[in-house]
Write a structure and sequence with these properties.
By secondary structure, this protein is of the alpha/beta class. The protein is 24% helix and 14% strand.
């Protein structure tokens, strides 16, 4: 999501899944959409029935490939090389010049350091026009000049003809009369350059004029049901609700004034940060200047850094809610060892998942050796509590409680509320009192009213972020949600119009119930009319102004060139940290120079092109199971459908290693080994990289040592390395060996 935020302004899908039917072409990369997002994929099929060209680019030929108009193979971990080649092709043959000149920073001047834009005394960027040699567009041309179809093929293993067919299809489906959409999932994000993968897609769509227009945009297919809602409301380590930057223990964040001076933007909606923060502090602590009460981050508190700190004895206890690090963390064996060093561990879930059993023999040692006191608390399921789910298109949908949870099971809201009460001595200023029912469950609607925001004087609800004040007269738990519940009888997330989710009367999407972000870019700025009648946007809630449709960004236009990211303003192809390829033929540096490595003592890495680990391994999901299987491997129907771990290899690799279909095999990496049943299949094929061949191996990662069906933990194989911007792990491309068991 930071890739979308840095490019376009908001960390969310720019469009909604129902709009896919309006696309003339759909490119699906980093996703097996038909199997992992089958509900959304029906709109892809509807688009194809209406004549759209559906393109799937993926290491494996899957059900998505089978339903596509065209499939192109790609070596795992080389998406930026492929997208960079598409960007080069579009710059040469398919640029939507009027759109690019009007709605992007293509005509701004780049400073000589190549990292920032040149700005005038008033802070505004210097406009020199797109044809100036130091303009963003000229820098972009030079940056991707070497990403020729031949070099893309040499890096990605995609035949040149296949690459050109994808490029031609996208250009053919873009312009005034036509639009193309891109769909991606965690196959793009879980890399040491994951943010830049998304940046490359945004650049491509902007050059084609495909953002903010019907049938265009970028649909980020989220990893599970409510991850969009969780990130909106600060489950990430580096943001507060509504994506306000989390304060740090640093001079620039030492006081509220210093924080605001550092983080408030000159223009755009982030210029309202003082009002958003003051209203958040009023909601939480009762006064707008309570910045001193906010905890400040003293170091990296991302997921893998916390595991490292646990292992070092720096973390004493842990609450695990909605997660299963004993099977889901990269280098999961290391994670289990770290969990076994805690003083206490509290897990809230439906079953005794792997993390709750980490103290037993199956968790990696004897109970006597485990220092951790483990508490497993039963959690209520979705139908047993009221609340909301925010889906992949930012749509917040309210649901009521259908039945009471059994026994001692309680909602997360109940647990956190009770925890806050018991911590009053530590955080006496926290204002978290809500009405409760007979079982002590807090009223979820009261929480949403606080998130929506209200006027302190009379309690009346806010209609929009524009209502927020910075003087303590308004309280608001998340500024992007202002308007979701403005009055007791207007819970808009519960609205259900007959028009369905594509209608503004069905539920509510942030911000301001917009289904399509940046939709003011759907008009020709010269005429003020749609780029074409066929692609006229007919939605109900405009976003931004005709001059500045990318209203979140300081300059009001989309950023082809995006300063501020840790690994540079333009995406570059880097090899995965572990790769069977020694050299990078497109860039001077082999791997991302800013990637992060954790716990080196328990996290060995393979050297580039190490002959002991000759194959590239990718992990993926199945339709029948969800994440580490906590909600699916305990269900007999789903367990029976997909009962054991398997390993996909090509017939060529199987012959090379003497493996037959159905044999038991061992898959090994520098971190560990797993055993699985061999699935010898044409769905995986060897990749030709110039004169050499690279084989790929595929493993689903849903299994563990608990549940009705069990299997080895695939994440025991992956490494603790991360992207430098958001610390996401690299589990979609690393190296391995395969042998017959």
């Amino acid at each position: 999501m930071p890739g979308l935020g840095a490019s376009l302004g908001r960390g969310g899908a720019t469009t909604y899944m129902q709009d896919l039917v309006n696309a003339d072409a759909i490119l699906i990369m980093g996703s097996n959409m038909a199997e992992a997002h089958p509900v959304a994929f029906r709109f892809v099929m509807m688009a194809r029935e209406r004549g759209a060209e559906v393109i799937h680019v993926d290491p494996r030929f899957t059900r998505t490939s089978a339903c596509a108009s065209f499939y192109a193979p790609i070596r795992p971990g080389t998406d930026i090389a492929f997208l960079g080649g598409l960007i080069r092709y579009v710059l040469e043959r398919g640029l939507f010049r009027e759109y690019v000149e009007a709605y992007t920073n293509a005509g701004f001047m780049v400073r000589q350091d190549g990292q920032q834009l040149e700005r005038g005394p008033d802070g505004r960027p210097v406009r020199v026009g797109v044809d100036h040699p130091e303009s963003v567009l000229s820098v972009l041309r030079r940056h991707y000049a070497g990403y020729t179809p031949e070099r893309v093929s040499e890096v990605c293993g995609t035949p040149v003809a296949d690459f050109l067919r994808v490029a031609e299809a996208l250009v053919r489906a873009s312009g005034r009369e036509r639009t193309a959409c891109i769909c991606y999932a965690v196959g793009w994000t879980q890399h040491t350059y994951g943010v830049q993968n998304i940046r490359a897609a945004a650049i491509l769509q902007l050059l084609l004029g495909n953002v903010g227009r019907p049938g265009g945009g970028i649909l980020a297919l989220r990893g599970h049901a409510n991850i969009q809602g969780a990130t909106d409301l600060a489950s990430l380590y580096h943001v507060l609700p509504g994506y306000l930057p989390a304060p740090r223990e640093a001079p620039e964040h030492a006081t509220q004034a210093a924080y605001l001076a550092r983080e408030t933007k000159r223009a755009g909606l982030w210029s309202g940060l003082p009002r958003y923060l003051a209203s958040l502090l009023t909601a939480w602590y009762g006064r707008p200047d309570a910045y001193d009460l906010l905890p400040k981050s003293d170091r990296d508190r991302s997921f893998q850094a916390i595991l490292e700190a646990m292992d070092a004895g720096e973390v004493k206890g842990c609450l695990v809610i909605g997660q299963n690090p004993a099977a889901g963390a990269p280098n999961a064996a290391f994670a289990r060892g770290a969990l076994r060093k805690l003083e206490w561990l509290v897990i809230r879930d439906y079953y005794e998942l792997e993390t709750a059993a980490v103290w037993k023999e199956e968790g990696g040692g004897t109970p006597e050796e485990c220092a951790t006191e483990v508490f497993l608390m039963p959690a209520a399921m979705a139908a047993e509590k009221a609340g909301s789910l925010t889906n992949t298109m930012r749509l917040v949908q309210w649901h009521e409680k259908a039945v009471e949870p059994p026994g001692d099971a309680r909602s997360e809201l109940w647990f956190v509320h009770q925890l806050a009460r018991r911590l009053r001595d530590v955080v006496p200023h926290l204002r978290w009192e809500y009405p409760e029912d007979a079982r002590g469950e807090p009223d979820a609607r009261a929480v949403l009213r606080e998130i929506n925001g209200f006027r302190v004087a009379d309690g009346s609800g806010l209609e929009a972020p524009a209502d927020l004040a910075g003087d303590g007269s308004t309280a608001c738990g998340s500024w992007i949600h202002a308007g979701i519940f403005p009055a007791p009888d207007r819970l808009r997330a519960a609205a259900r119009s007959a028009g369905g989710p594509e209608d503004a009367g069905w539920a509510w999407s942030w911000p301001m119930n917009r289904r399509m972000l940046y939709n003011r870019a759907s008009v020709d700025p010269e005429s003020g009319q749609p780029w074409s009648e066929r692609k006229a946007w007919r939605g109900e809630v405009p976003d931004g102004s005709a001059e500045h449709p990318f209203v979140m960004l300081e300059d009001g236009v989309a950023q082809l060139f995006a300063p501020g990211l840790a690994d540079g303003p333009l995406p570059r192809h880097y090899e995965p940290v572990e790769s069977p390829v020694r050299d990078n033929v497109l860039e001077a540096t082999r791997e991302n120079p800013r990637y992060r490595r954790f716990a080196p003592h328990g996290n060995p890495l393979a050297e580039p092109a190490d002959p002991r680990w000759p194959f590239v391994l990718t992990t993926y999901r199945l339709t029948e199971h969800h994440l580490t299987g906590v909600m699916t491997r305990w269900l007999p129907w789903l367990a029976e459908l997909m009962p054991e771990l398997f390993c996909e290899i090509s017939p060529e690799l199987a012959e090379e290693r003497g493996i037959r279909n159905g044999d038991r095999v061992v898959v090994a990496t520098p971190r560990g080994e797993v055993r699985a049943k061999a699935l010898v299949t044409l769905r995986l094929r060897p990749f030709r990289l110039g004169a050499r061949t690279v084989h790929a191996v595929g493993l689903p990662w849903h299994f563990g040592y608990k549940g009705l069906v069990r299997g080895d933990v695939v994440n025991d194989l992956s490494a603790m390395v991360a992207d430098p911007n958001v610390s996401i792990q690299e589990t979609k491309a690393f190296v391995c060996d395969v042998r017959k068991a």
